[in-house]
Amino acid sequence: MAPPTVPPPAMKYFWGDSPEPDAYYASLGLRHTESYYQSPCGRIFTHSFHPVSAAHDGDVKGAVFMTHGYCNDSSWLFQTVAISYARWGYAVFCADLLGHGRSDGIHGYVGDMESVARASLSFFLSVRKGPVYASLPAFLLGESMGGAATLLMYLRSPPDAGWTGLIFAAPLLLIPDELYPSRVRLFLYGLLLGLADTWAVLPDKRTGGKFKPKSNRDPEKMKVIASNPRRYNGAARVGTMRELARVTELLRESFGEVTAPFLVLHGTDDVVTEPEGSKMLYERAASEDKSLILYEGMHHSLLQGESDENRDRVFADMRTWIDERVRRYSAAVPAANDDTKEVTMA
């Protein structure tokens, strides 16, 4: 009999038990703030990162609005992405999705992605349209399921939102066949007239509902990710899988409506979200300025679970892309006649 799995050691913060947050962020040259925002769909937890070198909040290259993936929140290892962008000279704003982290909702439940996206979009637009950031370049960034939420936010944004660009890291746009929820199960649970929607009963076909080992390649980082006290570790809820199946299909039908510049990144060995979905977005989007980078042999968690060397490659590509778009578009809405198209096979 195999020995029982030893749970990862408890950690106060993703960097350890010390220093305290203010000291940690200051050591990186950053200022960090936390607050709650009352959206039309529920209260969500938000926080922001600014370079200390900025004379005031608007003294930055632009603003980046970030959305984490399923089971996670924006205050654990995902914030290393926000920290990186802030150190590159951007103001960064994050929000925990409804049903995740410190936001309202049943933990791990995404029964209505429209409401989930609307809640975060409401906060992002309240910042983006404010006097400080209205004239600056502004980008939406989403990882994994957060990529699907980000694309939905873009599609539901008002015409005057003025998003300069979109950034997707291993976005959930196409569910792999091996992970697709059983249609028979969903149908049978659906016969209960919604009573089963929040039940955490759907098995993970690869791992029995536990932490997915193939989504992260670095074992030490797997331990850090798994030690997140706000991470949802239960089985998938019925309504969540039903909704993800629905919304990914809806998004694929809407790829042609995407006109903003975008960058999409995906590992070729991703078994959690299908790289083919990113290829379809690139091929079908109407955007004139669009970039697809496929990383040979990399897994799902490009930004948090790969080796430092691989992670640094991904971050370098992200920095090059966003800095170039700021240079091209300045504070204006992206130009419609830019004819840059690029596919990079890394």
Automatic annotation (TrEMBL):
<dbReference type="InterPro" id="IPR029058">
    <property type="entry name" value="AB_hydrolase_fold"/>
</dbReference>
<protein>
    <recommendedName>
        <fullName>Serine aminopeptidase S33 domain-containing protein</fullName>
    </recommendedName>
</protein>
<dbReference type="InterPro" id="IPR000073">
    <property type="entry name" value="AB_hydrolase_1"/>
</dbReference>
<feature type="domain" description="Serine aminopeptidase S33">
    <location>
        <begin position="59"/>
        <end position="306"/>
    </location>
</feature>
<dbReference type="InterPro" id="IPR022742">
    <property type="entry name" value="Hydrolase_4"/>
</dbReference>
<dbReference type="Pfam" id="PF12146">
    <property type="entry name" value="Hydrolase_4"/>
</dbReference>
<dbReference type="InterPro" id="IPR051044">
    <property type="entry name" value="MAG_DAG_Lipase"/>
</dbReference>
